[in-house]
């Protein structure tokens, strides 16, 4: 089992090129199934979740090859419509292959992704929206069998009870090749939804309104392949900015999606850091000691503060001057990283969906186990700012979302090794 060994106390400074977005890359890889010819995807992050998506493509008969950060997917030959339980379990986002397979073949067999480290992850909204599109779905023993009687789903009006990212993506994937028009009300507005729609438009799909709450899709018989560049990863960006801010350092982040990161940047700025943005660059210079964030940090669907950035900002605020308050509104179990931060000397109290973080004078190195992807990244940040040595285990969680995080930290002058 690999671990990270981190010796804290170094001020980080330098320049980083932001990786491509994991949460864009996965649905776009699934969307390539809808095309009749080859897709070339640039800026694919080298992550275990991306390789899991390529194994799913292989399992249904598509060739997928990587050369550095470019993936070439040949969806010409889909020979199988069942995805094994083992592959479905490898990552929770495998559920987006359900909409893509339905759009491609009009049928599929997948399995319930199950709960995960963030708590229960129901898919009721995905299933009810697809049923409304004429998909017949049966669930037995965790296996979900989906079929469309005519071989194509039917466009319809869908209103989501909550702007779920995954449910919005599944409906879009099923609707772009459905018969007729689909309208999604209360759609998720996350930038990754716009990136998926941008890719699908480049393949010939007719989609409008993405980025807003109402998405309109006119079904097309077939889509073609294209060449596309995945957007930058705003959450990896938030992680490196929080890390450098906490280390009292300086960072130039290039290939950044500055507008999409604004909900995070406007909160980070309240810590006293100087932040300047231009085109695709973010410059950050940290204050001598961060200030607590005065307003309650409420996680919300985009354009609210992203739940995925809650843990990494909390790690930085563990050392700020004053008390910050978080309110987690998206997931039930998203404070599991606090145990490790407290072990390192942070003063955090969790009461239901609220976490009260009183800035400590210093943190101390410790052994910790990554509990989940962003929680693991928060532990890395705390370890970088702590006095002494930390050992972080179960780093498979961190590898799901960060491309060579230890190399990025070393490039900025930090002391972090993988053993
Ligand atoms: C996606 C992101 C994840 C991010 C989350 C919220 C990917 C691969 N993952 O996850 O990093 O944290 O958006 O921004 O893009 N829900 C239901 N029923 C459903 C669907 C969702 O109750 O059918 C609930 C979930 O349990 C959760 C909330 O809705 O509490 C938000 O989930 P959703 O937006 O669907 O997140 P994901 O797409 O799973």
UniProtKB/TrEMBL annotation:
It catalyses: phosphoenolpyruvate + UDP-N-acetyl-alpha-D-glucosamine = UDP-N-acetyl-3-O-(1-carboxyvinyl)-alpha-D-glucosamine + phosphate. The modification 2-(S-cysteinyl)pyruvic acid O-phosphothioketal is found at residue 116. Phosphoenolpyruvate binds at residues 22-23. The active site is at residue 116. UDP-N-acetyl-alpha-D-glucosamine binds at residues 92, 308, 330. Pfam families: EPSP_synthase (PF00275). This is UDP-N-acetylglucosamine 1-carboxyvinyltransferase. It comes from Ruminococcus flavefaciens 007c. The lineage of its organism: Bacteria, Bacillati, Bacillota, Clostridia, Eubacteriales.
């Amino acid at each position: 089992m690999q671990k990270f060994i981190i010796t804290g106390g170094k001020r980080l400074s330098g320049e980083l090129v932001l990786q491509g977005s994991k949460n864009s890359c996965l649905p776009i890889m699934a969307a390539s199934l809808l095309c009749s010819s080859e897709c070339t995807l640039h800026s694919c992050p080298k992550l275990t979740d991306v390789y899991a998506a390529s194994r799913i493509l292989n399992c249904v008969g598509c060739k997928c090859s990587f050369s550095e950060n470019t993936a070439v997917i040949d969806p010409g030959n889909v020979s199988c419509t069942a995805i094994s339980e083992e592959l479905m379990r490898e990552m929770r986002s495998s559920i987006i292959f359900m909409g893509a397979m339905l759009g491609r073949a009009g049928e599929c067999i997948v399995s319930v992704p199950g709960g995960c480290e963030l708590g229960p992850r129901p898919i009721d909204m995905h299933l009810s929206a697809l049923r409304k599109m004429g998909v017949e779905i049966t669930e037995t023993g965790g296996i979900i069998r989906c079929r469309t009687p005519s071989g194509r789903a039917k466009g319809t009006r869908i209103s989501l009870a909550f702007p779920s990212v995954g449910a919005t993506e599944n409906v879009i994937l099923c609707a772009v090749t459905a018969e007729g028009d689909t309208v999604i009300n209360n759609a998720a507005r996350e930038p990754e939804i716009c990136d998926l729609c941008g890719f699908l438009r480049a393949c010939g799909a007719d989609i409008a309104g993405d980025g807003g709450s109402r998405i309109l899709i006119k079904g097309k018989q077939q889509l073609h392949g294209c060449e596309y560049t995945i957007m930058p990863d705003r959450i990896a960006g938030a992680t490196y900015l929080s890390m450098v801010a906490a280390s009292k350092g300086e960072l130039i982040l290039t290939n950044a999606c500055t507008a999409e990161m604004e909900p995070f940047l406007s909160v980070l700025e309240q810590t006293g850091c100087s932040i300047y943005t231009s085109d695709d660059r973010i410059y950050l210079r940290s204050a001598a000691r961060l200030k607590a964030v005065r307003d309650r940090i409420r996680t919300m669907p985009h354009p609210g503060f992203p739940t995925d950035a809650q843990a990494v900002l909390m790690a930085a605020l563990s050392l700020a001057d004053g008390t910050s308050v978080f309110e987690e509104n998206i997931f039930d179990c998203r404070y599991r990283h606090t145990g490790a931060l407290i072990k390192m000397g942070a003063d955090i109290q969790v009461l239901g969906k609220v976490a009260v973080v009183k800035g400590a004078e210093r943190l101390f190195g410790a052994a910790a186990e990554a509990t989940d992807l962003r929680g693991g990244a928060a532990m890395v940040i705390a370890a970088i700012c702590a006095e002494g040595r930390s050992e972080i285990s179960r780093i498979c969680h961190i590898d799901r979302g960060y491309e060579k995080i230890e190399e990025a930290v070393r490039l900025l002058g930090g002391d972090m090794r993988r053993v």
